[in-house]
Amino acid sequence: MPAILKKRQTWLLKTEPSTYSFKNLLKDKQTNWNGVRNYQARNNLKKMTIGDLALIYHSGDEKAVVGISKVISEPYPDPDAQGGDWVQVDLIVFKAFEKPVTLSEIKATQSLKELALIKQSRLSVMPVVEAHAEILLKMGKTDEN
DNA sequence: GCCAACGTTGGC
DNA sequence: GCCAACGTTGGC
Description:
The longest helix has 10 residues. About 25% of the residues lie in helices and about 30% in strands. It binds a DNA duplex through loops.
């Protein structure tokens, strides 16, 4: 098991790159992941803890996992939410994938067929089990041992 | 541009 | 509580 995965939950966060991309995160170094307004995604956000990894997926034209970020805060209320129990977390950029892992590659990989990204294409915040995280990191040529 | 897969809203 | 209508996301 890559050292990077030890004792960490891995998540996958979807974003439309024209709204906020991994490049923006590379520039900003840190961001607050806000605006989630879906209960299931919110419930996943609430389970995040400091030190967790979050893979960033670009929807739309790119359709690929492009990099890794790290969760650096506990979930806390999203100030933009007008009422309702919505949260956000703070992220820092961790590492860009050397090679983006495309949706078509993921779909073509038998061992990833249970990934929520495939099974529940509209969910924007989802857990990634360790076995899947290992495979994705390997496919992205992100050597973190 | 279309459509599948949701999620939400509102009438009943 | 059900369901039709509508809205949104996101892949193709």
